[in-house]
Design brief:
Number of helices: 3
Number of domains: 1
Low-confidence stretches: none
Helix content: 25-40%
Bound molecules: iron/sulfur cluster
């Protein structure tokens, strides 16, 4: 018999059955699951699809939590960039000097949203 004790699962995480993906509890109240997820991964942040995603985010009841989560996982954004809490975060893999400016302003906006400003 093992003397090791099992670590308790953090309370903010829940098992999303039946796929067994760990999702934060707040995400269960999110507005985006009913939409095509590709809207949140636009190739062009000024496209119609990006605007639709931003509009959905603006009325999302868990927008503040989403913004905080985006700040916590900021470096794990995909190649295409992503919209979180209505803010477009360019990919960390994107080249060019405006990427840093765009990311800095996105982080600033996410911090404001997370703070409820
Ligand atoms: S703020 Fe937007 S991306 Fe975040 S959970 Fe809500 S709808 Fe989804």
């Amino acid at each position: 018999m093992s003397t090791q004790t099992r670590k308790a699962r953090p309370p903010e995480l829940a098992v999303d059955k039946p796929r067994f993906r760990l999702v934060p509890m707040w995400y269960r109240k999110a507005s985006c699951p009913g939409f095509d997820w590709r809207l949140w991964f636009p190739v062009n942040p000024r496209s119609k699809q990006a605007k639709i995603a931003s509009v959905v985010c603006e009325s999302c009841p868990v927008r503040r939590w989403c913004a905080q989560d985006a700040l916590n996982s900021e470096e794990s954004c995909p190649e295409s960039g992503v919209i979180r809490a209505g803010v477009y975060m360019p990919s960390p893999l994107k080249r060019g000097s405006d990427r840093l400016t765009q990311r800095a302003s996105a982080i600033e906006r996410l911090e404001q949203i997370a703070a409820g400003v």
